[in-house]
Amino acid sequence: MGKVVNLGVFVADTAYRAARQPKMGETILGNSFVLGPGGKGSNQSVASAKAGAQTHFISRLGQDDFAEMALSTWKKAGVTPAVVQDPGSYTGAAYIFIEESTGNNAIIISPGAAAQISTLDVDRNRALIEGADVFLTQLEQPIDVAFYALKMARAAGVVTILNPAPAAALPDGMLAQCDYVTPNETEAEALTGVVVTGPDSALEAAKVLRAKGAKVAIITLGAQGVLYHDGTQTVHVPIVSAGAVVETTGAGDAFNGGFAAALAEGQSPVAAVRFGNATAGISVTRAGTAPSMPSRAEIDALLGRA
Fold this sequence. Notes:
By secondary structure, the protein is α/β, with parallel strands linked by helices. The protein has a domain at 3-8 and 40-59 and 117-302: Ribokinase (UDP-N-acetylmuramoyl-L-alanine:D-glutamate ligase, 3-Layer(aba) Sandwich). Helix content is 34%, strand content 25%. The chain has ten helices and 13 strands. The chain has helices spanning 40-50, 65-77, 119-124, 126-130, 143-155, 185-192, 199-211, 251-264, 269-283, 296-302, and strands at residues 3-7, 11-18, 32-38, 54-61, 79-85, 91-99, 105-112, 134-137, 159-162, 180-181, 216-220, 226-229, 234-237. Strand 8, helix 5 (143-155) and strand 9 (159-162) form a beta-alpha-beta unit. Helix 8 runs antiparallel to helix 9 (269-283). It is globular and about 55 Å long.
């Protein structure tokens, strides 16, 4: 069992479906409501733990019902929390409006206590980070803290993964701290200026990411699979289908969590990409994000390893 340490954010997702958004001052009736666990770091940690890695999650929560949701979600999945609970703040939450006729959404995120994640949280968990096989982070917490943690992990010889989501400008030198950078098409375009529409354009973007310092670029392409490029080897890894697609939300988190778990246990990078694809392939056949993450047995069965 490999060890994955993840620095990131938990938010409670509150999803509303209605025919349209209300105007200012207006109240309308919705058609459905769902409350569930979210946040990229938390989702990826759940995916990693369920895929078989010893997984630790560094974050901040409030002391409220949403914090209890987070702790319960992690306990069920086997994630070990390394969190500070701040009684003076609140656990992050997201308002998600979904337009019934189109499926388009509008989102407001209030990160709460997670906005206060700092280098002190990283220093407090130095031994945990330096003892990991793989360190994984995203961009929902302050970027300077992610950069600091990546440097700490890299200096200790830990394999580092940056999932640059949501898309944001990165400080100079940050990609040079990444053994793997894992953007989707939109994030790759934001980082490189290359419009990514498929494997060929993904390769061009991957070359730019490597020129900026990343050791390996892995660009997720939705239904077109994943493009892997390390400077000497380029592999287009197709999706691993597990059935009809129900919901793609969280597919990227499933991929990153599965990929990190596979790397941590010693799988080759390309094999780990395929493992991540299988993790995502199962997740999209189910509703939700964290609740959709598959078990190791399910992933192995899909890959024909059972």
